[in-house]
């Protein structure tokens, strides 16, 4: 019997050793836990390059080379001897130095907190009104120069707001602590309130000020050169001009312009190449400029992750202070979208000198859209809804301004 059992065990072992099936899920199933899709991503990139190369080649054959360096320069300058945008940006140093001077006086107590608050309010308000007035009144200011100028002033506005807010928090901590801690905080604040510290913060790829930023140990030259190459490459510029110019000139069909692709190119150029280049040059350690917004399953997740510097500023200096004052989360969220909608409209309407409110309404439309997607759509359906809003949302609204600007200045539709 023992011999027979041994033979049976060997036979069963032989049968099981020939088994080729196990309990498992297909790799493309979410239950499999598989996440390495690099090959599929590379395939998508190759297909995108090939398809765009075909369209690009067809466009060149039909219209020729439309990218003229002189034409590019003319977008910034109407008169080669007049540089209104450059002078306007240079003038921002007046507001910067005034803000630094006020903070120094507040640190040593020569002016009251209320006086400092009023002075900061006047400076920040002037930083929005003054450049807008110059852009609207100076005839030699081009739309591109206006966007550049107002963009710089808007960034400095947000930075200086964070600068005064953070320093005020430090003064409040100093007043609440013991004498020796108070003396240490005072000396540290005075050390930080320097020209070097101020301009480092203004150049750093962040909108939120703190007394001590994380710094990288060295500048990686190879990494820096790669980002610089991505920044100066002319491929994206060629695509923009080669696609947009003939479409706008031949017919007023803005939806045929690949504005969504242009938006994606801009995102990579600005948030990855440019900001990493600047951070590497300044040895700024925090490189979290964006997160996986492309996987967003809700509109709120997208807005919280595609532009981390702005999200951090809104959260730190606007959203949480509103909650601290007794406002509800919904009220604070709507207020954040209102502020964002204002700046979207400000940065488009003023340079074009056309007030259509499309950018403002497009931004505010995100509020009910966020509620609808969060309530009724989840998973891949939510992600598809987010992508749909990106394709037909703000890029189309901006292109509508460009479309009307071209009609107003260069002709009408037939």
UniProtKB/TrEMBL annotation:
The active site is at residue 344. Belongs to the membrane-bound acyltransferase family. Sterol o-acyltransferase subfamily. One of its GO terms (biological process) is triglyceride biosynthetic process. It is a multi-pass membrane protein. It comes from the Eukaryota. Keywords: Acyltransferase, Endoplasmic reticulum, Membrane, Transferase, Transmembrane, Transmembrane helix. It is found in: Endoplasmic reticulum membrane. The chain crosses the membrane at residues 40-61, 81-102, 114-134, 140-158, 178-202, 261-282, 330-349, 355-373, 385-408. GO terms for molecular function: diacylglycerol O-acyltransferase activity. This is O-acyltransferase. GO terms for cellular component: endoplasmic reticulum membrane. It comes from Anabas testudineus.
